Amino acid sequence: MSIAFLLTTLVVVATPGTGVVYTLAAGLSRGRRASVVAAVGCTLGIVPHMLATVTGVAAVLHASATAFQILKYAGVAYLLYMAWATLKDKEALAVDEGAAAPLSAGRVIMRGVLINLLNPKLTIFFFAFLPQFVNPGEANALPRMLALSGVFMLATFVVFAAYGILAASVRSRVTSRPRVMSWLRRGFAGSFVALGAKLAVTAR
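^ that's the sequence the OP posted. Answer follows.
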């Protein structure tokens, strides 16, 4: 495993995106445990993209503009739904820690999975990224791709969890200010809209 692969992975994972926004929101609204659970969900959302790459389905997505557009706009729709849900749910970032009905770990994980699952750019990224570090002629190309994908997923979990735990560490200072919480809710909703817009106008 090369240093170039590790550095590229860290840069890609640490760059703020939908998963980071979701994990930060979980840390601020529900605390440290929820942020780690959200990081698990976002990491699991990588699995279908990894499998698509390894099995060659990514090649179909890469070649088929229709398949890519369908998945892309499904992702856009889900991001807009997340923005709407964040604005609508006044308890999404609750000031009173006892006011918000706790979300089950399953729901937190499912939202994280959907956020990454409905992101065709992740499949295309794997399709373009992994082959750069695998020799097509080597006998163990498939195990190597799986191993590299596993490292990418581990880095995703660690970085996202760190983002969330950091957000959770300042939660008490933030949640005591209702006006700040209101602006944060709008900010997260706006971030989902912006990320959805970016995905919508991004070509393959």
